[in-house]
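Question: what's this shape?

___
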Amino acid sequence: MSFLTAEQVVAAHKSNVEVLFGLTNKAFEGVEKLVELNLQVARAAIGEAAENTKAALSAKDAQEFMALQASLLQPAAEKAAAYSRHLYDIAAATTAEVSKVAEATAAETQSKFLSVVDSAVKNAPAGSENAVALVKSAVAAANNAFEGVQKAVKQASDVAEANFQAISASATKATQAATKTKRAA
C-alpha cells in the first residue's frame, strides 16, 4: 500500500500555510477598504454637519428652518443607501475572493486525495474490492455534498443581493416621496 512521503506531507503543509496567509491578506484588504470607506464618510459627515449647522443658524424663521430640514432629508437617505451599497460591495468582493481561493484549494486537495486513493487501489490486496468501493463512494458523496453547499451559498448570495437592491430602491423612493410631500406642504 502506498503512503504519503515526508516530502509530500511537507509540501502539503507549505501549500496550506500559503493558502492561509493568502486568505488572511484578502481579509485584511477587505478591512482596509472598510476603514477607508468609514474615514471618507466621517470626513464628509463632519463637513456637511458644519455647513448644515451654519445654514440652520442663518434661517430667518421656523418655516425656512423646516424647509432646510426637508431639503436635507433626501440627500441624507441617498448617502445612507450609497454607504450601505459600498459596504455590501466590499463584503461581497471579499467573500468572492475567499470563496475562489477555497474552491481552488478544495479542488486541488480533492485531486491529490483521489490520486492517493487511486494509488492505494492499484496496490490493494486481493479481496479488498468492497473497501475500495466504500472509499470511492464516500469520496463521491463528499464531492456531491460540497457541490450542494456551494450551490446553496450561491443561491443565498443571489437572494441577499436581490433583497438588498429591493430594500435600497424602496428606501430611496420613500425618502423622495416624503421630501416631495414636505416641500408641497
In short: The helical segments are 6-57, 62-122, 129-184. The first helix runs from residue 6 to 57. The radius of gyration is 28 Å. Residues 84 and 164 are 9 Å apart (CA to CA).
